[in-house]
Amino acid sequence: MLPANDPSLSSWINVDSDSDFPIQNIPFGVFQTEKKSARVATIIGDTVIDLAALAQLGYFNEIDSNLESSFSQSYINQFMGLGKKITNAVRNRISNIFEKNNPELRDNKEQQAQVLSKIHEVEMLLPVQVGDYTDFYSSREHATNVGTMFRDPENALLPNWLHLPVGYHGRASSIVVSGTNIHRPKGQQKPNDGPPVFGPSRLLDFELEMAFVVGQPTKLGQSISTAEAEDYIFGITLFNDWSARDIQKWEYIPLGPFLAKSFASTMSPWIVTLEALEPFRTEGYDQDPEVLPYLKYSGKKNYDIKLEVAIQPEDGQPHVVCKSNFKHMYWTMAQQLTHHTVNGCNVNVGDMCASGTISGPTPDSYGSMLEISWRGTKPVAMPDGSERKFINDKDTVIMRGWGIANGVRIGFGEASGKVLPAL
Amino acid sequence: MLPANDPSLSSWINVDSDSDFPIQNIPFGVFQTEKKSARVATIIGDTVIDLAALAQLGYFNEIDSNLESSFSQSYINQFMGLGKKITNAVRNRISNIFEKNNPELRDNKEQQAQVLSKIHEVEMLLPVQVGDYTDFYSSREHATNVGTMFRDPENALLPNWLHLPVGYHGRASSIVVSGTNIHRPKGQQKPNDGPPVFGPSRLLDFELEMAFVVGQPTKLGQSISTAEAEDYIFGITLFNDWSARDIQKWEYIPLGPFLAKSFASTMSPWIVTLEALEPFRTEGYDQDPEVLPYLKYSGKKNYDIKLEVAIQPEDGQPHVVCKSNFKHMYWTMAQQLTHHTVNGCNVNVGDMCASGTISGPTPDSYGSMLEISWRGTKPVAMPDGSERKFINDKDTVIMRGWGIANGVRIGFGEASGKVLPAL
After folding, report:
1. Which residue of chain A is at minimal alpha-carbon distance from B165?
2. CATH code of A148's domain
3. pLDDT digits (tens, 9 = 90+) for A117-141
4. Number of alpha carbons in the 13 Å side-chain half-sphere of residue A234
5. Residues A114 and A209 in one domain
6. B309-334, pLDDT tens digit by residue?
7. B383: closest CA of chain A, how far (Å)
8. Average pLDDT of the residues in B11-22
9. What is the value of ipTM here, to two decimals?
10. Longest CA–CA separation in chain A, Å
11. What distance in Å separates the CA atoms of residue A139 and residue A145, rounded to the nearest whole number?
């Protein structure tokens, strides 16, 4: 375990007991204020830490005197691209600066004024410039549910599903940061008894996912083994892969989802490093049939991270409709990245790979309204007396994720988005 | 017709009669030399014109004194992003500078030495930083051929095909410029009589496509009408969407092609502007059934551009295996871009949208080996006595495209790539 993960550490910055961001987390994001242009930050408790300012004050000089440039960017890409040797050293140094017994910044109010802001005083921005975005389909329960509903309960999984991590290319341009409003998409839908029609989607859904961010590039032709794969993963974020089920159903054969997904995807503002998630490693699924040699892996490469989704009507309280866990992944991130590059496809810093909907084995752990309401046949009762089969206009969908180990809670903040009526 | 398209124009630079690049073309690309870093260029005949140098010498001062910055880039994105008012003014000014009666540069050998290079003296680079890459499937003949081979000749087109331009997201990172060698990809394939196996693809194919490049961005939520769509298209390039048919067949259900395509796509180094292609506008297909109102368009939005594909064995001559035409597009580029954004999906400068394989009505116009050899049942006889069902190691696949109108040939150069053995 890295020093920065030590559960006995505490910070001179106040951290509430239910905070996602104790000193053991140290995720990376980007913020701006009226006075400060976009720059890279971390967060402890509800205090946002301006890393460009810390670098300018010389706090990282022993690691790399050019870090100020990497932190004075609109995205964390340049920082990630420095490699884990540097980024882990930065994480450890941040841990050290904010540890309760270190007086360097603790006792310097003037420097604190340059470095620290409260989260409500800043605007969090999209943290990653996403090059290519790939969406996998790696929860067996989700794939089984979808196959049962739309195809054949006896043969719910398609023949390839247990042999490779099925995935497809998604739209990078429309990935937005938590808090961005989404307009209900319009598109073609096909009624059962007539020609296709055009209009606002009537079956707007969320998909509960997590996504990893690539931190090291490969060259065209290069492949990454499962043993190497996590070295190429900088960290993980919460991800809502918004989906219009009616548009999807009509368009997706034979080339896959397109406009049903490309109108928006919402990510949380903080990228939690793989290193911070070390305490949450857990065993993966037994894979039967045996996978081909290039997909075999050893060690614990799943992560025990609790996930939940709430729907909040405009004038109501958030109502939790799903409690799942990132450990419900049949295919690990390492297998996904290995498969992705086995044909020589190159990856770049900032590429994102989402998990696909993460459904658990029980109905209360299903990761989409399609599954929760079982195609609309089992509506969800909301506290205000209304019901939901899918997502209504003016609903806000809020995703959260966290793990707890050794008494330390490492969380992801939230990925939330409000649905506005179609334009 | 723009002044720059006037067929009576000729240049003081020599242009062979079979050149793709008369003074009426003026495409945009990026080159570097040992002495010059990457910069934006155009070409007349076989003379590459350094636009950064021309700007530095003040040749574009009446348009915009900051053009030197836009031309001193590794990609043409910044230049495209200036908008058609500027980019068309630049094209017209280039036409003027190189017109045979203009002495400005013609009579200044010292400046010519700074501006002009022969094509064999420079290295052409990938001209566009591609954000998102989308591949359509818009040739009716291609979709019919594929449906006939793999599904049902009586119902070759899937139900949605005539109602919307089917498309999917592709991989942007692996788009390479003409001349880049490609390694045969490895991946999972499924024999008919056993479990999946892993190894080099045995059915490596080309797909003859053209791709348009987005020159103006939209905001998330914004849609583009068919009447507006061409204003957002900067220009067009040749595109080889390399495909591994055996990998594709096993992986593509239900989410579409993934590793079968993502190992490489090859584009030509020059982007020919839509303005240069004005003389080649031609009527599109009658669309029956009638399309939904948002997909209707008026005017000539197809383009009569001859296309051909040659296969060149390592020690042999190029042998043409396909003669097709860009006019064989059931769905126009305007319809593609309108459909792409009708759900509010935003586009960025540098996004690319490829046509899908462009097959004509006759077997000699089919745009892939899959169709030409009809799944390998009709091998192509090569001049050296060998035959091809698909692409062999050490074959070079060469695509060319050009139109001729009013005696002027406007061409695209070539998109070529050599296949090296699997790594």
Report:
1. A251
2. 3.90.850.10
3. 999 999 999 999 999 999 999 999 9
4. 32
5. no
6. 999 999 999 999 999 999 999 999 99
7. 31
8. 97
9. 0.97
10. 73
11. 10
B186 to A247: CB separation less than 8 angstroms, yes or no: no
B71 and B161 inside one domain: no
Domain that holds residue B103: 3-125
- Residues of B classed as catalytic: 142
Which of B166, B187, B223 comes nearest A255 by C-beta? B166
The torsion angles phi and psi of A47, rounded to 5 degrees, stand at: -105, 120
Q: Which of A125, A146, A175 corresponds to the end of one domain?
A: A125
- Residues lower than pLDDT 70 in chain A: 1-2
A255–B164 C-beta distance less than 8 A: no
Torsion angle of C-alpha atoms A200, B302, B333, B253, degrees rounded to 10: 80
Same domain, B299 and B282: yes
**Rounded CA gap, B354 and B181, in Å?**
21
- Inter-chain contact A174–B254, Cβ cutoff 8 Å? no
Sign of CA dihedral A80, A85, A91, A94: negative
Per the structure, how many domains does chain A have? 2
Same structural domain, B170 and B47: no
Q: Compute the nearest-CA separation of B120 from chain A (Å).
A: 25
Provide the token pair at A70: 């990497």
pTM of the model: 0.98
Tell me: do B113 and B159 sit in the same domain: no
Are both B186 and B311 inside the same structural domain?
Answer: yes
Task: Choose, out of B128, B157, B169, the residue to mutate when testing the contact with A (most A CBs < 10 Å).
Answer: B169
Q: pLDDT digit string (tens) for A328-348?
A: 999 999 999 999 999 999 999
Are residues A49 and A160 located together in one domain of the fold? no
**Looking at the structure, do residues A147 and A296 belong to the same domain, yes or no?**
yes
Choosing from A83, A100, A125, the residue where a domain stops is A125
Q: Residue B271 gets which letter from DSSP? A: B
CATH classification at residue A106: 2.30.30.230
Looking at this protein, which amino acid is placed at residue B232? Y
- Indicate the residue of B160, B198, B344 with minimum beta-carbon distance to A183: B344
- Euclidean distance between CA atoms B136 and B139, whole angstroms: 9
